[in-house]
Structure formats: structure tokens, C-alpha cells
Amino acid sequence: MPVSPEQQAEIDDLRTQTSPTLRATVPGMEAHLYKAYDVLDHGFIRVIDYMGDDSAICQAARVSYGKGTKSVQNDEGLIRYLMRHWHSTPFEMCEIKLHVKLPVFVARQWIRHRTANVNEYSARYSILDREFYIPAPDHLNAQSVVNNQGRGGLLEGEEAARVLEILKSDSNRAYDHYEQMISVEGQDGLARELARMNLPANIYTQWYWKVDLHNLFHFLRLRADAHAQYEIRVYADAISKVVADWVPAAYGAFEDYRLGGATMSHTALDCIRRMLKGEEVTQETSGMSKGEWREFQVAIKV
Questions:
Q1: Which positions are annotated as binding FAD (predicted)?
Q2: Which CATH number is 8's domain given?
């Protein structure tokens, strides 16, 4: 169960309370507040708090650039200009705080984004629940033969069953030993901060994660990408849906220029110019490595 009965009771209570405010609020985001959205088998995300909206981005930009923005006719146009020209500070005026429940190995990837404030559930003071991420059969892949950090084809039949059984039995065996070490009857037991080291990386943890919109967009650009690991990508996808309701103009520009856009090197642009002139360009004549050429072809859909 992603949300415990106690957590659901807290959510229900929080959603019955309202407070008058003079600060900007966003109806779409108010609808998301405190709700838990399931991710993976036991995980979730939920919005705890937020600050700012699309207009806060424009307000900050106009303070920064003054008369330089007078030619921009509307807020959406200004936001698209800022995104297009990689202006970052106006997007830092918006912040979001999320409560996330996720497997430890996903958390280790996530924490590489060091531009956020994080407070994680402490296994030094509390006992972790017996909840492990076990991949669904349609996400049980072999190692890719062309990408050292990617997945290949699906495991099937007896091989898939064998791997799933190992994952389940190892997880439960490690947790059994964890419980025995900290609570053997008649003995003091091992300190929780030591006993936790025996737990597998697929056990679930929880944290509060607060980040500004500029750095959140950077997170989403990398983690909502089709090449990102599935287990973190589904969290990025869930967060993206919330952000689209929070700052629709900014998210639309981000989707257009970052998620759906491509950054080209000088060499790649030169190849495009040559192609437009009718020249046949190959990897050998492009000036690119095989890897660069392959990525270039994907970007221009050749």
C-alpha cells in the first residue's frame, strides 16, 4: 500500500482545512495539495506546499530587465522568450515542496540533483517498513548490448520467474534478518543505525524535497526523458502533470524548448545547412563520431 492509513487520515484532515491568504494561489495546484499520486508498486508523490505562479516569473523578469521587456506583449510570450534564451533566475522565483516515497536506489539517482532541500526519513531513529520495489513483468529487462547503462529486451518465461523469485526472497530474507538484529527477544539487539546496512537497495524510503522551478525543470529534462531509467522516469512523469497545472505557460515553454527541442553543435548545424543545399552528408563526411552521428540522426528523424 503506497499510503498508510495514518497518512491517508492526515491527508483527509489537511484537505478539509483552509486558510485565508493574500499571496498568489493557483486553482490547479490547490486541487493537487496533499493528494498522494501512486508511483511504482508502493511509492507516491504529493504536493505539500508551493510558492509563485506564471505571473511571479514575469514579475521577476520585469524587475530584472526593466524596459528591456516592454516589447513583449504578454506574459506567455515573455516566458517563452526567457525559456528560449536560457534565462534562469526568473524561474527560481517559484518553489514546490513534495513528499516522495521511493526505493532507495531511485533516491540515490535523484539525490545527484544537488540543487534542492531534502529531509529524508531516518532509519537511525525509526524502523523501515517491509516494502520493496519488485519490477512488474513488463519492466523486467535484460542488459542492453549497445548501451552499458541501459536495458535490452524483456526477460520471459522461466528466466523472468527465476529472477523475480530471487528479488522477492532476497528482499524478505534481508528484512527478516534486519528485524532479528534489532529485536531479538532477551537481548539488547543491534542499533538501528547499524542494522539498516543489511537492507537491500529496493526498500522504500521517504523524503520531503523542496526545489525551485528552474532546477525542477532541469530535473525533469533529464529524468522525464525517454532514455532515463524507468523507475525514476515515472516519478518525473507524475511530477510533470502537477507542474503543468501549477505553471501552465512555463511548463508549455519547457515542453516545447527543452523536452521537445534539441541542442545542436556547430558541426551538426553545419551538416543541416549542407543537407538543405542538397549535399549528401554521411557520418564519414560529417565531422562527427559514430555516437554523435547516431544522436544527430535521431534528432532530425532521419
A1: 89, 112-114, 120, 212-214, 218
A2: 3.30.1360.170
List residues forming the annotated binding site.
89, 109-114, 120-124, 196, 212-214, 218, 223
Q: Is 223 assigned a catalytic role?
A: yes
- Domain check: are 95 and 124 in the same one? yes
Say yes or no: 52 and 109 in one domain.
yes
Per-residue pLDDT tens over the stretch 169-211 = 999 999 999 999 997 677 788 999 999 999 999 999 999 999 9
* Three-class SS of the chain: CCCCHHHHHHHHHHCCCCCCCCCCCCHHHHCCECCCEEECCCEEEEEEEEECCHHHHHHHHHHHHHHHHCCCCCHHHHHHHHHHCCCCHHHHHCEEEEEEEEEHHHHHHHCCCCCCEEEECCCCCCCCCCCECCCCHHHCEEECCCCCCCEEEECCHHHHHHHHHHHHHHHHHHHHHHHHHHCCCCCCCCCHHHHHHHCCCCEEEEEEEEEEHHHHHHHHHHHCCCCCCHHHHHHHHHHHHHHHHHCHHHHHHHHHHHHCCCCCCHHHHHHHHHHHCCCCCCHHHHCCCHHHHHHHHHHCCC
- Show binding-site residues for FAD: 89, 112-114, 120, 212-214, 218
Is the domain of 164 the same as that of 24?
A: no
Query: What local confidence, expressed as pLDDT, does residue 7 receive?
Result: 87
Percent of the chain residues topping a pLDDT of 70: 95
Low-confidence ranges of the chain (pLDDT < 50): 71-72
At 6 the pLDDT is: 87
211 and 246 part of one domain: yes
Domain housing 270: 263-302
Active-site residue among 84, 130, 192, 223?
A: 223
